[in-house]
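Researcher: I'm comparing several assemblies side by side, and this is the next one on my list. It has 420 residues spread over four chains. Same procedure as the others: predict the full complex and return the structure.
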Amino acid sequence: MSTSYAGCSISIVNGSPMALTILALLHYKPLHPYGVQRLIQQWGKDHVVNVNQRASLYRTMERLRAEGLIAVRETSRDQAYPERTVYEITEAGQAVARQWITVMLGVPKPEFPEFPAALSNLLLLTPQDFLATLDRRLAALQERVDALDESLSREAGLGLPRIAMLESEYLRAVTAAEAQWVRSIADDLRDNRLPWDAETLAAFAEDQAP
Amino acid sequence: MSTSYAGCSISIVNGSPMALTILALLHYKPLHPYGVQRLIQQWGKDHVVNVNQRASLYRTMERLRAEGLIAVRETSRDQAYPERTVYEITEAGQAVARQWITVMLGVPKPEFPEFPAALSNLLLLTPQDFLATLDRRLAALQERVDALDESLSREAGLGLPRIAMLESEYLRAVTAAEAQWVRSIADDLRDNRLPWDAETLAAFAEDQAP
DNA sequence: CGTAACTAGTTGACATGGGACTAGTCCCGA
DNA sequence: TCGGGACTAGTCCCATGTCAACTAGTTACG
């Protein structure tokens, strides 16, 4: 499951938050899938990895095993509990994890979030509806920022070093920026600094694609 | 394909950038799938909707048709070209589009981008590697901001009203915020304001999960 | 003692994204 | 005039991710 280009063999499996986090946790100690889930929740990382739906978790770990990045250490049956398969990371897994994290950090991935897509189809709404909706979003964003601030100061209170909180710091920064932008647009709209001429737009559309 | 709660029937199909954009374009005029793709590219919206892979486009339109949000207007065969199926929006489609856009604007969707996930597993890297990687990301982000600035000023030059450029404005704002954060972290790291004590972290991990 | 919540893992349906492939048409230059 | 490259239009497969439900045993609580 790997191709080689010019002698440099690269793994085909592409990184994902889920897969990287699993490798990182197994780097720390061998675990069974459910243990991975609990650790992620315990360390409060469930804001960066979607681990609430276990389906992806089990599927991803099976995939990593098939690729040889992790290996079964033991399958222990604790009384009548379902069988737990404990995995450990392989050397290949350690190398790939380092490779993935480098790419994920260094290359911003083009993503297609819903909000800008909705923004580009504003003509379907009235300015009044738009304004009300922006206010709803703003409130939700503000809540998120507050929650991040709280968890940041809680973790700082525990004496955690700053590098251990960078992901929350980052999320806080971009969420706050989004909130600020939304607020400025809402203000412009309220004060009539954002002319809403549906006709001009329609005319442009006619022009461009007859 | 719809459930009703307390008499208020809501559609099961959940919105997506792709689906909303299709409905919006068909609201403007009937089109066949390939025409939708061209129109999106022509209007420069391919930064907010991933339309380069046609597979999703055809699948989504088939789904919308099955749900009754769009309908086949005609299937015309232009000489020896493959058969083109032209779709038009239905009344249900218009209502659902308005509903979707309200939700997509008003409710920030929890997303799990790669960057924070990678940030939370920094221990796999050396500070030197991390710094080099941040610089790569910063350069890429700066390029994006420049490209957005350029397209904004080009569109403004054409006389397009500001509401027609909100999505680029938004992307510019959040991308610039991300770039600024990355730069500040890189600077802190360079000036040793970001202590990198792997041992302290490991000790914490031991404490929390024995 | 019963029921609710937790532990663990599984399954199926469905959506998205990337890449490749077919197959015909049109244009441009050697 | 012939061949290559670009465009038109649609299809298929694979990998991955998300949601929701289902099983089935365990612990806790009233």
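Model: For your comparison table: The radius of gyration of chain B is 23 Å.
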